[in-house]
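Worked example

This section walks through a single chain of length 86. The input is the sequence exactly as stored; nothing has been trimmed or padded.
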Amino acid sequence: MMQAGFAVVESSFVRQKNSANIMMKNTVDLALGALLYWAFGYALAYGVDPNDPTNVNPFCGTGQFFLIQGHDAANWMFQLSFAATA
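Given that input, the structure is written out below as tokens.
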């Protein structure tokens, strides 16, 4: 993922003793980003209410929080790479 590339680039800009801190920061950033995107982000971006699929909110999604009602795993992972990078 892009996070690995950013970790290497960031660690090249700091002294060697701080490289481990940069790698840990990027690991935690990816882990928290993935957790929050799984819980809320994907639903707000693409969620449709499973009880009424015709009720589409033009501003944000209204369903599929925590990806309970099924999802496309490949699309979720692809979108996660951009969400965690931002």
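What to look for: Residues 19-46 form the longest helix (28 residues).
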